[in-house]
Design brief:
The structure holds two protein chains of two kinds. By secondary structure, chain A is mostly helical. Chain A has eleven helices and no strands. Chain A is elongated, with a radius of gyration of 19 Å. Chain B is mainly alpha-helical. Chain B contains two helices and two strands, in the order ββαα. In chain B, strand 1 and strand 2 form a beta hairpin. In chain B, helix 1 (40-55) crosses helix 2 (59-71). The chains are: A mainly alpha, B mainly alpha. Chain A binds chain B through residues 71-72, 75-76, 115, 118, 121-122, 124-125, 128-129, 131-132, 148-151, 153-154, and chain B through 8-10, 12, 50-57, 65, 68-69. Chain B: Pfam families: Zn_ribbon_2.
């Protein structure tokens, strides 16, 4: 096998491990042992450690890739969304695509490496950029209450995460974002509107 | 499509590039009024302030988070060597 072919093969295995880990973390959580991931990916247990020296390194790579995908999708939201309701719908639509994974990530954050918290803050920073752009326009126009930006943003995230973390109470066996997303947005917008 | 070397923002539209110049590797938010790229200190300070303003984090924590984000970006690699 040529050097290029070997490298391609190596990259394919790496991607297969990451895709499998992403899928399994979303269902069973981040504590899933690496031997289960190897089995599901159809590679030897040792192959995982060729690419990812520890379980934590694998978790962080999967989280990084997830964050990159979400950041791409969040990009441009404040230029396409004219009001806060529209922006929050767009936010929920992006998260909806990764709902199970995102849910596990926020539920298990305390048991993940410290760098996972930094990844979440970078995601929140991207969203808060769009959020603050739309909110500041709304405050200038007298449509939104003059409450500090961080409290408005954290209130939105708090409501959203509470429902995601307790999805089994609000929408057992279904998507809590499908079930309650509109109600969360409408309530939040009503609370912050002048 | 390029990604800003200083903040990681995707640059899809010409207006997102510094000075509307698609040959630049950094975005409109990371440039100074004269079109040059902000320094490490300027970027770290503005990013920290932004995190405090929009997410309300403690000042020292916000600074650490800003540095963690910058560490992953090519423009600042020499600052974390």
């Amino acid at each position: 096998m040529s050097q290029t072919k070997r490298q391609e093969q190596k990259e394919l295995t790496r991607q297969r491990i990451m895709n499998t880990a992403f899928r399994i973390y979303a269902v069973n959580g981040f504590s899933t042992p690496t031997n289960i991931i190897a089995q599901e990916a159809g590679v030897s247990h040792g192959a995982i450690f060729v690419h990812f020296p520890t379980k934590e390194v694998l978790q962080l790579h999967v989280l990084e890739r997830f964050a990159k995908e979400v950041l791409k999708k969040l990009h441009g939201l404040s230029t396409t969304s004219e009001d806060i309701s529209e922006l929050l719908h767009a936010h929920i639509n992006v998260l909806h695509k990764y709902e199970e994974f995102y849910k596990k990530m926020i539920l298990e954050i305390a048991s993940l490496p410290n760098e996972a918290r930094e990844i979440i803050i970078s995601l929140q920073s991207a969203m808060s950029w769009h959020f603050s752009t739309v909110i500041e326009q709304g405050q200038k126009a007298g449509l939104i209450k003059k409450i500090p930006l961080h409290m408005l943003f954290n209130t939105w995230i708090a409501i959203l995460h509470y429902y995601l973390q307790n999805a089994d109470l609000f929408a057992p066996g279904a998507s809590v974002l499908d079930c309650c997303g509109d109600e969360l947005i409408n309530t939040f917008v009503t609370l912050i509107s002048q | 499509m390029k990604t800003c070397i200083a903040c990681g923002m995707p640059m899809n539209d010409i207006t997102e590039y510094a000075m509307n110049d698609s040959s630049k590797d950094y975005c409109v938010h990371c440039s100074r009024p004269d079109g040059s790229m902000q320094s490490f200190e300027e970027k770290r300070s503005s990013l920290t302030s932004f995190i405090i303003k929009t997410q309300g984090l403690d000042k020292n924590v916000a600074l650490k988070m800003a540095e963690a984000m910058m560490k992953k970006l090519p423009a600042w690699s020499e600052h974390f060597a």
